[in-house]
Amino acid sequence: MFTSGADPGDWRPTPPWFVSDPFAWVAKVRPFTLDSSSQFRTSGPQALTSEAYATEFDEVKALGSALSTTRTPAQTVLALFYTENPFTLWNRTFRTVAQDRGLTLVDSARLFAMLDLAAADAGIGCWDDKAYWSFWRPITAIQLADTDGNPATAADPAWTSLIPAPPYPEHPSGYNCNTGAMLHAARDFFGTNRIPFRVYSSTADVERSYSRVTQAVKDTINARIYLGIHFRTPEVQGAELGKGVAGWLGDHFFQAVD
Fold first, then answer.
1. Which one of 10, 139, 146, 190 has the largest count of C-beta atoms within 10 Å of its C-beta?
2. What residues pair up with 207 in beta bridges, in sequence order?
3. CA distance 221 to 180
């Protein structure tokens, strides 16, 4: 279980479950390809008293609220599109890509080995990073903003996010650790970013189209903010952690042999 705290910035369980993630043990798993689970340690959340934190605070407070009057209908659609589990979403997506591009059985096996090993190690690294920083979710930060020491943030004890916050620390974004890893691993496999593809979300029952493999990362970053469950920094750093894992895997594994 993740350890909760009571000081400003400390993660603590959030409604409606008020529990700690039963999968916190993932942080202690030995990675498949990395030298250690902390190999791609992020630089961490913005300082609570900083201007940057206040800016990100106001962004998610306005756009991620369950009762937001600022979030546009298109932003809500994007947010709900990316509520499906990223492992399921991206594996489904690249099954279609593999079929459309006529990959052989061997090449398909190599593609999915790269995708899912990158995702697994990014998940391990991400959960290790969550345990290390143990940062509070926006719902906690906004409701308790009068304790954060930042005069530029205003508390709203009644604020809630568009969807309930997951039961584990906020920094970095697990969704974007996995997305960054899988999309950059795919780019490395194909040797180009210029691959048009479609993404189907079973939670939204619609498709989105992209012209480049890693183009979707921008959308998954924004989506988690519109859902009200993340600040921007953990989204960006999560995607970078995933990218780092994919790059490591591409440089050290799945190389051509005689």
1. 139
2. 200
3. 10
Note whether 177 and 241 are within 8 A (CB). yes
Backbone angles phi, psi at 209, to 5 degrees: -115, 145
Q: CA-to-CA distance for 173 and 57, rounded, in angstroms?
A: 16
Q: Any idea what the CATH number is for the domain that residue 190 is in?
A: 1.10.606.10
CA distance 127 to 241: 11
User: How would residue 17 be classed by pLDDT, with cut points 50, 70 and 90?
Assistant: confident
pTM of full prediction above 0.85: yes
Which pLDDT does position 131 carry in this prediction? 96
Number of domains forming the structure of the chain: 1
Whether 60 is in a domain gets the answer no
Query: Is 64 domain-assigned?
Result: no
- Domain residues for the domain of 240 are 75-136+167-252
Q: Are 223 and 84 in contact (CB under 8 A)?
A: no
- CB neighbours of 130 closer than 8 A, spacing ≥ 6? 2, 27, 168, 169, 170, 171, 172, 174
Total length of the chain: 258
Residue 115 lies in a domain: yes
Burial class (CB in 10 A: 0-12, 13-18, 19+), 213: buried
Crossing angle (nearest 10°) for helices 232-252 and 174-190: 40
